[in-house]
Design goal:
This protein has about 675 residues and is mainly alpha-helical. About 70% of the residues lie in helices and about 0% in strands. It has helices at about 5-20, 25-30, 75-85, 90-105, 110-120, 125-140, 145-155, 165-175, 180-190, 200-210, 215-225, 235-245, 250-265, 270-285, 285-300, 305-315, 320-335, 340-350, 355-370, 375-385, 390-405, 410-420, 425-440, 445-455, 460-470, 480-490, 495-510, 515-525, 530-540, 550-565, 570-580, 585-600, 610-620, 625-635, 645-655, 655-670.
């Protein structure tokens, strides 16, 4: 049934009610004043009327408004000079050509004169000329002038407005990232104008504005209303919504929308497939990501290096390096050449798994294919080789990097310094630091903290203190990390007095100790026999923010100190506090209590009942994973849990949801 004026108005009001929940407006606010809402500064979208290109900012004259009441004639010089800018005929076409020319050049003063003369001579105005001027206002960032011109088209120029001019103005507003203002303009015009009916481009712009404002659910609501307005969503509509959903981490709904999109006969571009694949990989849902790649092939959309790099990165995050490496062969079979990012991702993943030697082999294969590694790849390999005890190979890698002309940055230098310190060679590391400064590469907190740690571990705490004093006045260096390393090193070296001085200095400079600094200070106090002072610091931690909350290491330090003092009841109270703070005990916690129960009690106990009760307490708090880890400790110690305890834990692991989770995990492992 055709939509009459009454129906059209009714439908317009229906859509208006959706949008106006958060964006109400009046005539004056919608068309005369900028929105009071905070505008979001973002990049231009793909779904604009004009391609997004770098815009030259045009500085217009002081008076940019079109003063249409001014009847000053256009000088004859304009018409004499007009042929120099193009071929003009006498009549209306002459004026139209002038409008296009002056709009293109941003000459708004001359445009004002042309419009004034056209009004005086009663020339006919066409919508396409106003669209040209609206776009010129957009390039000059004069959004409100574009809105003002749209409102004058009918009353002052007797020019019929259609959805084309409306979309042009709406697009100009959105190009300036004034998304709330765009919705206000849409609401006013569609509700109050009876002869403008939105089309698919209108909806695309509105949906984009809503998504940019984070109102994705309302954008979906508008999307569902499109068929009512006889407007069929296109590929840009779907992709805009999928972008919005992905940014809110609602990947499942985005994938469902992709399925709906393909059923409706719209096929996304390679870029959109890659966005969804990336979202699934970040969630760890590699099985669905792989199915999406198969979907790409079925739709004739061939994956590119971005697709493969995204999958490889996801596999590396899950620790599936062998599968990530096998994807290299698949890339070549599909005539997709791996690039530096591909190889770099795999090398970094191998290093994180402690397989730096395998990473070095991949680097060799990379170079054989004609790719050159950058400083970040070398940094990962140098640091990784040192960590696995391959110091000679790491130094060869460093020398090779220098010979190939790859200039090391702060990250590479820091990796080398940290590696030498791990090898017990802080003096050589100090020489590298001097070279680093000499070539103009600025060390960071990680660089200095690694060197300090190296001197502490070789028993040279005085040299570590000299390093700290050297950086104490440097901006951004004397931070929490350096203080934490210094306090930990001094406490381990038995220099509690110096550690307390650093602690006070830390507070005087406004730094907040982190959990490592607190734990180190508590450990030093406990070693010195000041357990009560350690407990005071512990209570201070409980009152701090989450990044300074005590962890299992902090609890184990205090539990060990209390048990050594034969304060078993206080240790159990602290264990209760640990459970209340949702901090799970580990194997160290278990061993502390097992040693105490066996060596300090008379008669000694093997601790099986104590650990069995701990398992049940964790089970009652629904911390089944932690409970199962305690059972593993018991089995290693040949301590058998009670049959009832076994039954409770096994039943919890065998719940249907848990089984389904295990099955899903197996499928992911198979992929």
């Amino acid at each position: 049934m055709p939509i009459n004026k009454f129906n059209r108005k009714h439908l317009s009001v229906s859509l208006f009610s959706i949008l106006s929940k958060s964006h109400s407006c009046s005539y004056s606010s919608a068309l005369s004043k900028p929105s009071a809402n905070t505008e979001h500064e973002i990049q231009n979208s793909h779904f604009l009327i004009e391609p997004s290109v770098p815009r030259k900012i045009i500085k217009p004259p002081q008076d940019l408004g079109l003063n249409f009441q001014n009847d000053a004639p256009i000088p004859d010089k304009i018409f004499r000079d007009a042929p120099k800018s193009g071929s003009y005929r006498r009549g209306d076409s002459t004026f139209y050509s002038l409008i296009e020319n002056y709009a293109k050049s941003g000459d708004f003063t001359s445009l004002e004169m042309v419009f004034s003369r056209m009004k005086r001579e009663k020339r006919a105005f066409t919508e396409k000329n106003f669209i040209v001027v609206v776009r010129a206002y957009g390039k000059a960032h004069l959004t409100e002038k574009a809105v003002e011109l749209f409102t004058r088209m009918v009353d002052e120029f007797q020019c019929k407005r259609t959805v084309k001019s409306f979309n042009s103005v709406l697009n100009v507003i959105i190009q300036e990232a004034l998304y709330s203002r765009a919705l206000e303009f849409y609401n006013f015009v569609i509700v109050n104008t009876k002869n403008i009916f939105p089309n698919v481009l209108t909806f695309n712009l509105v949906i984009k504005a809503l998504c940019k404002l984070g109102l994705v659910d309302r954008a979906i609501h508008v999307f569902r209303e499109m068929p009512v307005f006889k407007s069929v969503p296109d590929v840009y509509t779907y992709c805009t919504l999928m972008d919005g959903l992905c940014k809110e981490d609602r990947i499942d709904k985005a994938v469902a929308l992709l399925d709906e999109m393909q059923i409706e006969g719209c096929f996304p571009s390679l870029v959109k497939f890659n966005i969804l694949i990336n979202g699934l990989c970040k969630k760890g849902d590699l099985a669905r990501a792989a199915k999406l790649v198969d979907n790409m092939f079925l739709k004739g959309c061939v994956p590119n290096e971005v697709t493969y790099n995204t999958l490889i990165h996801g596999l590396c995050l899950k620790g599936k390096l062998d599968k990530a490496t096998s994807l290299l062969d698949r890339m070549l079979l599909n005539k997709c050449i791996p690039n530096d990012v591909t190889y770099g991702t795999i090398i970094n993943g191998l290093v994180k798994q402690g397989r730096a030697v395998d990473g070095a082999r991949v680097l060799l294969a990379m170079e054989e294919k004609g790719h050159n590694a950058n400083e970040y790849v070398y940094s990962a390999l140098v640091g990784g080789l040192f960590k696995v005890g391959k110091s000679e190979q790491a130094l060869r890698m460093w020398k090779e990097m220098m010979e190939k002309g790859c200039k090391p940055n702060t990250v590479v230098y820091s990796s080398l310094i940290d590696g030498l310190c791990r090898e017990g060679k802080p003096n050589e590391a100090e020489e590298i630091l001097s070279e680093m400064i000499r070539v103009g590469c600025k060390p960071n907190a990680y660089t200095y903290s690694s060197l300090m740690k190296g001197f502490f571990e070789t028993g040279n705490s005085d040299k570590a203190l000299l390093v700290w004093k050297d950086i104490a006045e440097k901006d951004g260096m004397n931070n929490d990390v350096c203080h934490g390393v210094l306090i930990s090193g001094l406490c381990k070296d038995g220099k509690l007095k110096e550690a307390l001085m650093v602690w006070k200095h830390m507070y005087s400079k406004g730094y907040t100790p982190d959990v490592v600094a607190y734990s180190s200070m508590i450990h030093g106090l406990c070693i010195a026999g000041s357990v009560e002072h350690g407990l005071k610091l512990f209570n201070e931690m409980l009152c701090k923010e989450s990044d300074s909350k005590p962890d299992v290491v902090t609890y184990n330090i205090l539990l060990n100190a209390l048990c050594k003092q034969n304060s078993l009841s206080r240790a159990i109270d602290l264990l209760n506090n640990m459970l209340d703070q949702c901090c799970d005990p580990d194997s160290v916690t278990c061993n502390i209590f097992l040693s105490t129960l066996k060596g300090k009690l008379n008669p000694p106990q093997n601790g099986s009942e104590f650990l069995d009760e701990l398992v049940l307490r964790l089970y009652r708090r629904q911390r089944v994973t932690a409970a199962s880890q305690i059972i593993e400790v018991m089995l290693h110690k040949f301590l058998h849990p009670k049959a009832s305890t076994w039954e409770k834990i096994i039943r919890e692991f065998c719940k249907p949801k848990k089984i389904q989770t295990a099955i899903d995990k197996c499928w992911n492992e198979l992929f």
